[in-house]
Amino acid sequence: MESYWLCNDCMQAVAYDDFCTLSLYYSEAEVERRITAMCTALQALLPLSADFDPHTHTGSEACSSHPCDACCSALHGARHRFTRL
Ligand SMILES: [Zn+2]
Hints:
The protein has 85 residues and is of the alpha+beta class. Helices cover 32% and strands 25% of the residues. It starts with a strand and ends with a strand.
C-alpha cells in the first residue's frame, strides 16, 4: 500500500472535511484558492485512510521538511501519514 504524508491543512480536510484552519492564515481570496487547489490534489489521492495515531504520534511527524504529498506545501511543519485504500 502506498503511503502519503499530508500537512496539517490537508489532514484536517481529509479527516474532518474541515477547512477552517486555513482561514487563520490566509485572506479570504487566498483561502478560496488554496481550498480549490487542495481539493483537486486530494481528489486525485482519494480514497485515503488515516494511518496515524494522535495519541502515540505514530505516523506523525511534528516538524518535517518533506513537502505535503497533496498540496505540495513545502512549509516545514507537521505531517501525518495516510494510506491509499
Ligand atoms: Zn497539504
